[in-house]
Amino acid sequence: MAFLVVLIALVFDVLNRYEPIGIDFHTYLAAAVVGVQHGWSFIYDQSIVADAQKQLVSSQIAQPFLSPPPAAWLTAPLTPLPYWVAYWVWTAVNFVALAGALVWASRKSGFERWLYAAGALAPWWVVHALNLGQVAPLVAAGAVLATRLARERKDVAAGLALCLLYLKPNTALLVPFALLAAGRYRTFASWAAGGVVIGVAALASMGPSGVSAYIDQLRGTLPEGASNLTVEGAFGVTGVVATALRVVIVGIT
Asked: Fewest beta carbons less than 10 Å away: which of 7, 144, 170, 225?
């Protein structure tokens, strides 16, 4: 019965798509194309990225690339493929990574382990992230892998698994700090060291001009879709009230 409920939920998730398929992957891949063809220092030149998006799929919505550089690096190997082949490869890798992490990290065994993993994949936001081609499933996979590794006291490996958070830091940024508060210092240190390595690689690949362009993009006005997901956009508050609300949210979580 539980398996049937999960299966029905997955079917509804697949059928209930209200945003263009692959819209986020489309942006990552466009940035990767710019990096490969023009140099990585140009991946935050939004006019070039927009041109690359139109060349990939002219009918797809173009949106600014505001993700950290690793999102573009990770999709770069897919640039030689036809766009839709690349999208489905990316989606399959994301799904298998998250599903595999859930199964491997589970405390259950046998069929029950698979059922719990399917249940975790069934909520609409998981399939929605896969539909959009988001990196969020990989971030979740990193957090799940880190849970099992930390449970086995493999603290350095757990920290390295958490480095997947750097693909989309705002998705699970509190996880390493929660581990730090729990006394898992080696896990936090290896995660932080991984961040330093990624930061150095970003500086080396993009140069000061590329890093400066990225910082300028983050300081500027966000697109409407991204702005709606912030505290200010979701609750219509600013300044001190927005900061206080963030503190409350962090405290609750």
From this structure: 170
